[in-house]
Structure to design on (464 residues):
């Protein structure tokens, strides 16, 4: 899309207003929020179209006021590595609770929206914003869209209030590396209508399902989640396992390439093993369900991926890779889902921790003679001297530094501190930041409190 000079001037002026209202007197504002979302959706996979209204209730729990709010639509990033113009998740209008139309600005190819409130949101006040949105669902390139096998994957299609922390609003463009998400845990109520031939998989708890006139209406509630995710398919095979009070629900497109009954059962067993094992290490997974589904095949690449209460696993590879990937994505339920972090600034806090947890889980499983730690060490040594807590776009070798060296750092600490003591530190870290946001500093503080061992050399070697 191109702009005329006049349009560009108006847009620049609007952005200037956004920026100046955010930084009164050159000082960072003390802003924090609680949010909940109510979403009403009509999904028509045949027409490749979804319309929805989303009402975001935002409570200002900080000590300053703001006239501007920022929202992310991460789904617009997840469409593919290259940004596609079609297949946008677009906001058509924004209204406040009194029905006033509000001004808003689409930024970063639809990943960021800036909304100007009619009046300042004062501390302890709340505002209700209703967004009307339209989604033209593209072919699936990686994580978002309709796959060649007919899976409809709509992760993080909704608007999500951007974080505001000591660095101000989190509105930097998302880098190519990594997932780039950063969000508070929030409650979602979702109603979704879909032609009855389709089954839905959602990370929320299903409350009801009713069919009339060929349309099935599903309602879900997802409490304290970092995201809301909906997948649809006509050919889901359903599998189930139970771990403690959690039902692990498998939704697999059995007509998709590489998805076999044997591998579905295998992945479900791996997920059950990992969930039980991590429950014991990091604190019990709190949700009623964990959804496991196949990673639909995109035209670009099809990743194994984690959401809050839902994981996608790439089928068609070696069984052992599927096991390793399932352990990794289940570990993300703690390190991303329950303990949040800024995935742009400190991606090692979710990726390094999940890889480390994967190594522990493989050790506990013990079925293969696979040199997990040795391979991680070789990869980490190739990035010797690099610090693990670098931002996404500064990591020269992203995978090696953030995943491998991150995992090796934690393993080195565990060897120095002692296995049991270190696991107890990790458990304390999870409990303290459960549903919250943690930083590297927060982790090191808990580590230092939990041990008498001298770990200063290790910390200096791996951490900036
Ligand atoms: Zn990961």
């Amino acid at each position: 899309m191109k702009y005329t000079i006049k349009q560009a001037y108006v847009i620049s002026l609007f952005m200037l207003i956004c920026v100046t209202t955010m930084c009164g007197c050159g000082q960072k504002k003390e802003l924090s929020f609680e949010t909940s979302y109510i979403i009403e959706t009509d999904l028509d996979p045949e027409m490749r179209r979804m319309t929805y209204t989303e009402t975001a209730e935002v409570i200002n729990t900080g000590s300053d006021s703001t006239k501007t709010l920022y929202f992310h639509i991460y789904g617009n990033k997840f469409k593919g590595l290259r940004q596609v113009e079609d297949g946008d998740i677009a906001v058509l209008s924004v209204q406040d609770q009194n029905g006033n139309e509000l001004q808003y600005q689409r930024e970063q190819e639809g990943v960021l929206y800036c909304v100007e409130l009619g009046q300042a949101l004062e501390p302890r006040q709340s505002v209700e914003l209703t967004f009307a949105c339209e989604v033209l669902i593209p072919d699936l390139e990686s994580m978002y869209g309709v796959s060649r096998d007919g899976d409809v994957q709509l992760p993080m299609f909704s608007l999500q209030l951007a974080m505001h922390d000591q660095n101000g609003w989190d509105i930097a463009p998302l880098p190519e590396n990594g997932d780039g998400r950063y969000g508070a845990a929030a409650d979602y109520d979702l109603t979704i209508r879909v032609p009855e031939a389709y089954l839905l998989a959602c990370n929320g708890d299903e409350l009801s399902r009713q069919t009339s006139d060929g349309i099935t209406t599903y309602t879900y509630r997802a409490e304290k989640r970092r995201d809301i995710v909906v997948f649809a398919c006509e050919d889901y095979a359903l599998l189930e396992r139970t771990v403690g009070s959690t039902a692990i629900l498998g939704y697999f497109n059995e007509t998709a390439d590489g998805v076999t009954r044997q591998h579905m059962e295998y992945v479900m067993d791996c997920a059950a093993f990992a969930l039980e094992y991590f429950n014991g290490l990091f604190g019990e997974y709190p949700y009623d369900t964990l959804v496991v589904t196949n990673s639909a095949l995109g035209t670009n690449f099809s990743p194994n991926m984690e959401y809050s209460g839902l994981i996608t696993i790439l089928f068609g590879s070696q069984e052992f890779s599927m096991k390793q990937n399932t352990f990794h994505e289940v570990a993300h339920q703690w390190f991303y889902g329950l303990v949040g972090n800024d995935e742009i600034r400190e991606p090692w806090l979710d990726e390094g921790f999940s890889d480390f947890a994967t190594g522990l889980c493989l050790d506990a499983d013990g079925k293969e003679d696979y040199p997990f730690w040795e391979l991680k060490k070789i990869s980490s040594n190739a990035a010797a001297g690099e610090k693990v807590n670098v931002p996404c776009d500064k990591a020269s070798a992203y995978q090696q530094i953030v995943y491998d060296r991150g995992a090796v750092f934690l393993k080195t600490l565990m060897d120095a501190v002692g296995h049991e003591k270190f696991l107890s530190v990790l458990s304390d870290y999870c409990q303290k930041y459960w549903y919250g946001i943690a930083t590297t500093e927060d982790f090191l503080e808990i580590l230092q409190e939990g041990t008498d061992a001298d770990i200063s050399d290790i910390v200096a070697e791996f951490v900036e």
Summary: Confidence is low (pLDDT under 50) at residues 1-8, 16-25. The chain has three domains: 29-138+156-192, 235-334, 348-462.
